[in-house]
């Protein structure tokens, strides 16, 4: 399948896609992004992505490059032309290209919009969910507006790399007061000894994860007890279960943190319920179900 990109109104071969070196995302990380999943050619929870995107743009006073309806058409056209059936859409909006100056450029400067659709076989998550993944913890080194999905991800990159070097799937970030914030690219959940499923309340300290939002509703509808409250690193390590959620890892049990087993070291019942509810929701919205024994490509 052709590797394509959408750049400022045109779909071009990825190798020929380019933006100005004066683009403010390149100079100042002055831009926002979204990552949405694609199942059977359909975007999952796209309206929620549009809502979060609009919020990020509004918080940073960046103009939307086009209407929601036009953006959907452009995104779906790229997905179709790229031949992606199951995968992810990356979308980035920047404050545009202008002579380098910290202050915002002239309000007429057009915002930059680029998108890439790439295949990802979500079926591979099923066997991973059955065994679970590992994590480490690290200091959260980010700024004080983590609720904005800004492309300024250097602290997340450094945290993820630390995890990778430790052989871990995710790095769970901790504020200086010992409070757990989130994973380097995931929302973190803990399950109390009494079975309550806990995740942090939304604030400027964490990204409003869309899998988080979706899963809270699914769990509550299924009769599970969910609490949105802060918890510290001791509670994380003492939890009966830990799991993370994100677009690329819809739900992933974490079975050890820093080399110490979580619970009995296997994915627990609440985590597996969360996995099942999310797959059911994906099927409900898109008709897609994971294939057993998938080769891992798409
Ligand atoms: C820091 C951070 N937290 C949480 C998430 C999960 O968000 P979502 O469920 O919308 O993918 C992400 C996803 O990229 C992230 O980067």
Could you give the topology of this structure?
Blueprint lengths: L3 E4 L2 E4 L10 H5 L2 E9 L2 E2 L2 H15 L7 H15 L4 E8 L17 E8 L5 H7 L1 E7 L14 H12 L4 E5 L5 E4 L3 E5 L5 E3 L10 H12 L4 E3 L4 H6 L2 E5 L6 E6 L2 E2 L7 H18 L12
Parallel strand pairs: 7-8, 7-14, 11-12
Antiparallel strand pairs: 1-2, 1-6, 3-4, 3-5, 5-6, 8-9, 10-11, 10-13, 13-14, 14-15
Pyridoxal-5'-phosphate (PLP) binds next to helix 6.
Protein name: Probable branched-chain-amino-acid aminotransferase
Organism: Pacificimonas flava
Family: Belongs to the class-IV pyridoxal-phosphate-dependent aminotransferase family.
Largest sheet, strands/sense/barrel: 9 strands, mixed
Distance between the termini: 10 Å
Shape field: globular
SSE pattern: EEHEEHHEEHEHEEEEHEHEEEH
Catalytic activity: L-leucine + 2-oxoglutarate = 4-methyl-2-oxopentanoate + L-glutamate; L-isoleucine + 2-oxoglutarate = (S)-3-methyl-2-oxopentanoate + L-glutamate; L-valine + 2-oxoglutarate = 3-methyl-2-oxobutanoate + L-glutamate
EC number: 2.6.1.42
Protein name: Probable branched-chain-amino-acid aminotransferase
Cofactor: pyridoxal 5'-phosphate
List its salient traits.
single chain, 298 residues, alpha+beta, D-amino Acid Aminotransferase, Chain A, domain 1, D-amino Acid Aminotransferase, Chain A, domain 2, 2 domains, 9-stranded mixed β-sheet, 6-stranded antiparallel β-sheet, 8 helices, 15 strands, 30% helix, 25% strand, globular, binds pyridoxal-5'-phosphate
Short description:
The chain is α+β, with helices and mostly antiparallel strands and 298 residues long. 30% of the residues lie in helices and 25% in strands.
């Amino acid at each position: 399948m052709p590797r394509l990109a959408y750049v400022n109104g045109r779909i071009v071969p990825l190798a020929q896609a380019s933006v100005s070196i004066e683009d403010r995302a390149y100079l100042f990380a002055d831009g926002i992004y979204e990552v949405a999943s694609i199942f059977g050619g359909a975007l999952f929870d796209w309206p929620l992505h549009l809502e979060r995107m609009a919020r990020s743009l509004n918080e940073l006073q960046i103009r939307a490059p086009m209407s929601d309806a036009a953006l959907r058409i452009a995104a779906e056209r790229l997905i179709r032309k790229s031949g992606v059936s199951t995968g992810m859409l990356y979308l980035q909006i920047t404050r545009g290209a202008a002579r380098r100056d910290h202050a915002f450029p002239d309000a007429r400067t057009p915002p930059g919009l680029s998108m890439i659709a790439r295949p990802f076989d979500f079926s591979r998550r099923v066997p991973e969910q059955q065994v679970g993944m590992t994590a480490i913890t690290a200091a959260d080194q980010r700024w004080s507006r983590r609720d904005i999905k800004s492309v300024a991800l250097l602290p997340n990159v450094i945290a993820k790399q630390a995890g990778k070097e430790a052989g871990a799937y995710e790095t769970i970030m901790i504020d200086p007061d010992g409070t757990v914030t989130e994973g380097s690219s995931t929302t973190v959940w803990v399950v109390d000894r009494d079975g309550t499923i806990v995740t942090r309340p939304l604030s400027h300290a964490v990204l409003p994860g869309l899998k988080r939002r979706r899963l809270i509703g699914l769990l509550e509808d299924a009769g599970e007890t969910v609490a949105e409250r802060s918890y510290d690193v001791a509670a994380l390590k003492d939890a009966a279960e830990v799991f993370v959620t994100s677009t690329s890892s819809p739900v992933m049990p974490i079975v050890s943190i820093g080399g110490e087993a979580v619970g009995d070291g296997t994915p627990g019942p609440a985590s597996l319920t969360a996995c099942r509810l999310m797959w059911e929701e994906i099927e409900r919205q898109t008709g897609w179900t994971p294939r057993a024994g998938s080769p891992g490509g798409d």
